[in-house]
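Example 466.
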Amino acid sequence: MNTEDRADFIQPEEIEKLLAKRGGTSSAKVSELLAKAKELRGLTMEDVASLMLVQDEDSLADIYSTAKAIKEEIYGSRLVFFAPLYISNRCANECTYCAFRATNTELTRRTLTQEEVAEETRILIQQGHKRVLLVAGEALPPQGFQYITDTISTIYETRVGPGEIRRVNVNLAPQNVERFKRLKDAGIGTFQLFQETYHRPTYSQVHLKGKKRDYDWRATAFDRAMEAGIDDVGMGVLFGLYDWRFEVLAMMQHIRHLEETFGVGPHTLSFPRIEPAVGSDIASRPPHEVSDADFIKMIAIMRLAVPYTGMIMSTREAAEVRRQTFAVGISQISAGSRTDPGGYKEGAGDPNGSQFQLGDHRTVEEVVTDVVTLGYTPSFCTACYRLGRTGQDFMDLAKPGEIKYHCQPNALSTFLEYLCDYAGPVAKSAGEKLISIELQQMDGQQTACTLPMLNQVRRGERDVFV
Ligand code: SAM
Ligand code: SF4
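Predicted structure in complex with iron/sulfur cluster:
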């Protein structure tokens, strides 16, 4: 795809036609679609449109229980942990919903030095993290793009005792192919980018200045990333800007485009809802606010539609909503997050430096203890990416059966690392109990693979994975 290409794979007419269908979806149709989803081969746009129409409580309950079953079949009880690392809140764009927008005078601007990046990284390591999501506004310091690649190197090189960050994902502005290659060479995991809204008129209304005004440059970014050899890309929409039903179907078109062009869809999907942001009116009163009920429904439907795709829930949401989303398909979560550069060192998080308000203020350890109590296994695993299992290779591995002998043992060994090195007594006792329950539930082959790994970790070995 040429850089000047339009994102013609987003076809609003096709979406509008599907959305124009009124009335409900019969329970017989819902059952047929859920039976199809259970085959784990995904759903079409038409199927998704039908499920979005479901209103009756019984059918909704069936959708949720099927989403839960599919998540458990593919991911087991795992929830992968990560933390965002904001390195700069300077930005040349003017996105009306974001505190970092160029003309916002209420914000204290800051770009971290490499020493400050290392300091933030050390704090995240000491919280137990192994994955970070590097995030920045869209204005480079005088060193140019080198600043970004230097920062990635700094994060990977920073160590505290046995701890280190093993996977750096990024959420950055769209790049050209040459810069995507530099990001790949710097060792990024996933390139994450949210289209914000796929609805062109709304896109123009909320992006007032800068390169981000170019809808097509943004929507075609994954094509350039994949051309550059980055095959883990993370898709998302900023929910609240436009009708969520339109956005979900547009995401389905984007996914379809990547699958048809590159043979593999996105590695992850994110579901950010707009949160209040300093100096933004629209962020406090989103024009198309998504209710909690619709939010849960959309996540469950996407779990059915793209069963092998990682689905991410950030700390934008409050703890209770997060818990509900874990039950219907979320597989990765952030914890202990700050959205202001330097926020981990400064502690409370500077509201005048932050991108938006958080809904979940708990520490990593509190979130770990909570999810363990709910029966999930926190995972700090980064094995796939480091073994080159990305893109299609990852999707092949993600087939049920295979995952039992890789992901589940890796989840337990990295969780045990966390318990040994970073957990306090409460998390430790809850975690050890969970590990023994998980071991009891394993078949002989799984135990034979997992037990030696756990023993290695208990003896002090680190970074043990298969
Ligand atoms: N500046 C780059 C960009 O815009 O793509 C990357 C980083 S930007 C800080 C990351 C994401 O934050 C945006 O894509 C947007 O979806 C999200 N965001 C911005 N304002 C937000 C708000 N008020 N509430 C929730 N999420 C927000
Ligand atoms: Fe800048 Fe990204 Fe915020 Fe837009 S969303 S103002 S590009 S940081």
